Amino acid sequence: LLPDAMGSVAQWANRLLPWVDPSLGTTSLALYAAIAVLVIACPCALGLATPTALMVGSGMGAQNGVLIRKGEAIQLMKEVKVLLLDKTGTITLGRPVVTDVRPLEGGITGSELIRLAASAERNSEHPIGGAIVAHAAESGLSLDDAGDVEAVAGLGLVATVDGERIAVGSRSFMEMEGVDLEPLLPVLRDLEEEGKTVVAVARSGEPLGVLAVADPVKPDSARAIAELKRMGMEPVMLTGDNESTARAIGRQVGIERVVAGVMPDRKSEEVARLQREGYVVAMVGDGINDAPALAQADVGIAIGTGTDIAIESADITLVQGDLTAVIKAVKLSRATFRKIRQNLFWAYFYNAVAIPVAILGMLHPLIAEGAMAFSSVNVVTNSARLRRVDIRATGLDTGIGEGEE
User: Fold this and answer.
1) Which residues are catalytic?
2) Residues facing residue 104 across a β-bridge
């Protein structure tokens, strides 16, 4: 029966396709059809569908200040639902300045309070310590050398200045040191309600006063966070600051969910907790303390103006250091994968239609070759059209690729 069937197909093909040689027998027609199938089924288009779009997308990202180190980051970025944001250097400028000097009433002067705190913080790499030292320098104060410096990450430090133990740090750090801050609590609360970071200073276990440090919010942070919300993402602030200060900053930029008092090692735990709840999590940070969380997150995003270790731990680096670049990354991810889906659709559609025709011997190998080449060119051209997508953060648009023509 099979030879008879193949013979019938051959006669049918001879009538429909004038380029098929009437003298072809069953075997020759089978070989003819096999060649056409092999040519038309060449997986060039399928193989090009994803890498060409990713290549164009990565190039666009680089042109817009979004450096993508891992291709999978583009894929995951479009699925992110929770965006964790470090405060200092990410939402804020990361250049805190001393705004208030409040010595304990009846105690030392404000200048002496600054001098002792700055002497203890003289070699500190923490931004708040740097702000205190800079303020002392601007005030023309001469600093003493500090010895026996012991720092507790995210809380404060103690050092020996003028032969006495000076402690500089947060309220919780002072509790660890056994310092009674009761006389300073009214001042502490007032300054914290203003959204300032309050640092207490103690000498030999006795409180001397407090310093208030403010880190200005970046001009674009509120607008960027508002647009990220419109894009369906929930921003969450992670910070080592106290609850009052953190919530004051959160109100300024429109973040309702704030996790305050987070130690550096707990940031990665917070990321893992959200992942266990089923969220795809992105983390944006800039400091050494953020590196574990950046590595733990599904997508780690480092601020380009931050530390090298944070950049090394991240999947994406924002060159300009502002949050509007996160919007570009999300839009770029969604636009890139829309192109990938388009490419795969046309590649599969082309094969699904053409292969059965080739199997029946109704497709000339030369036509199959041209169609295969056209399919590959179509995929590459469609990927190149990704460059016409507008991924800028306008603060108004809510769609992706609205600039595409």
Assistant:
1) 86
2) none
